[in-house]
Amino acid sequence: MLYLLWFKIKQPQSISQKQLMEVWKKEAETAMPAVKAGKIKGLWKVSGKREVIAILDANSHEEIDETLENLPIVKELGHSVDIDVYPIHPYENFYELIKKLIE
């Protein structure tokens, strides 16, 4: 199953920008192998914002929860990270459904 994950990171007042970037570096070092392995189907940084969008391939809702709770950025900045999760499917599948519905 595919999920769109939208991460919105707020810098806590208690840490410097350098500390935030150090946490973000750990996050990137965790994400890059998952991209290469195909678990993360796409990963984008939103320009000008502290936001990241990912397409994740997961076997269950529980796997999404487990994955998110184990991310370095969530472990270290959990209260400062908002994550929107949307289950998604290929538009081609929706097109096939539309054809069935109008028959």
Automatic annotation (TrEMBL):
<protein>
    <submittedName>
        <fullName>MIase like protein</fullName>
    </submittedName>
</protein>
<dbReference type="InterPro" id="IPR011008">
    <property type="entry name" value="Dimeric_a/b-barrel"/>
</dbReference>
<dbReference type="Pfam" id="PF02426">
    <property type="entry name" value="MIase"/>
</dbReference>
<feature type="domain" description="Muconolactone isomerase">
    <location>
        <begin position="1"/>
        <end position="92"/>
    </location>
</feature>
<dbReference type="InterPro" id="IPR026029">
    <property type="entry name" value="MLI_dom"/>
</dbReference>
